[in-house]
């Protein structure tokens, strides 16, 4: 298990008070109920290349604020974000919410949990 620095955890905990978050086992149902929803993998490009949820679009946390409006200009688009474990996606969801996106959800548990719950692609697909 990855040990995160206390300052980082405080930042994530604060973001979680301002965002909507679901557990990984809720994602498939949520996506099936919203055909216009977008699943965003906010991990680094090498993490995404090593394997990701089938159908997920890559938009790394490092550039999401810069690039989201060009890709998804409608502020009401349902955006579901995941990372490795749910920390970076919480921070990215907070940033997008502050930018005016109204339907942003972070997936707690992230890729580590989703691998066993949803179809995946890439070298680690299973």
Automatic annotation (TrEMBL):
Gene3D superfamilies: Rhodanese-like domain (3.40.250.10). InterPro entries: Rhodanese-like_dom (IPR001763), Rhodanese-like_dom_sf (IPR036873). The keyword tRNA-binding does not apply. Signal peptide: none annotated. CDD domains: RHOD (cd00158). PROSITE patterns: RHODANESE_3. It holds the Pfam family Rhodanese. PANTHER family: THIOSULFATE SULFURTRANSFERASE PSPE (PTHR44086:SF13), THIOSULFATE SULFURTRANSFERASE RDL2, MITOCHONDRIAL-RELATED (PTHR44086). This is Sulfurtransferase.
């Amino acid at each position: 298990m990855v040990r995160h620095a206390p300052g980082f955890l405080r930042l994530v905990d604060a973001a979680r008070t301002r965002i909507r978050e679901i557990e990984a086992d809720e994602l498939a149902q949520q996506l099936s109920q919203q055909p216009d929803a977008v699943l965003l993998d906010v991990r680094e490009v090498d993490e995404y290349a090593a394997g990701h949820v089938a159908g997920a679009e890559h938009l790394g946390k490092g550039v999401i604020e810069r690039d989201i409006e060009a890709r998804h200009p409608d502020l009401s688009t349902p955006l579901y974000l995941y990372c490795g474990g749910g920390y970076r996606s919480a921070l990215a969801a907070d940033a997008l919410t502050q930018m005016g996106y109204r339907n942003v959800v972070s997936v707690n548990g992230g890729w580590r949990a989703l691998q066993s719950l949803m179809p995946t692609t890439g070298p680690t697909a299973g």
